[in-house]
């Protein structure tokens, strides 16, 4: 399958749009605003979200609040 040109020309491509992938994308954009960052995920757009509950440790919460 060919890769779209818009993805071929990114500084960073993150595989996975879960908590870790999206947090990494946000942190990279804040650290380097000129950097092009793309997140790709296997889940189709508009899919029903996963209903599982996530637990976040206090240190992780502080990090997310800083972002």
Overview of the structural elements:
The termini are far apart. The model has no long low-confidence stretch (mean pLDDT 85). This protein has helices at 5-8, 19-31, 58-66; strands spanning 12-15, 37-40. The chain has one domain. The chain has three helices and two strands; from the N terminus they run H-E-H-E-H. With 67 residues, the chain is of the alpha+beta class.
Radius of gyration: 14 Å
Query: If helices are DSSP runs of H or I spanning 4 or more residues, what is the number of helices?
Result: 3
Pattern of helices and strands: HEHEH
What proportion strand? 5-15%
Side-by-side strand order of the widest sheet: 1-2
**Large-scale geometry:** flat
Main sheet specs = 2 strands, parallel
Distance between the termini: 35 Å
Give a concise summary.
With 67 residues, this protein is α+β, with helices and mostly antiparallel strands.
For this entry, give a set of tags.
67 residues, alpha+beta, two-stranded parallel ribbon, 3 helices, 2 strands, 39% helix, 12% strand, flat
């Amino acid at each position: 399958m060919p890769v779209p040109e818009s993805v071929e020309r990114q500084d960073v491509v993150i595989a996975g749009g879960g908590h870790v992938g999206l947090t990494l994308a946000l942190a990279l954009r804040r650290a380097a605003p000129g950097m092009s960052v793309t997140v790709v995920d296997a889940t189709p757009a508009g899919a029903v979200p996963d209903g599982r509950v996530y637990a976040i440790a206090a240190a992780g919460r502080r990090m997310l609040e800083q972002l």
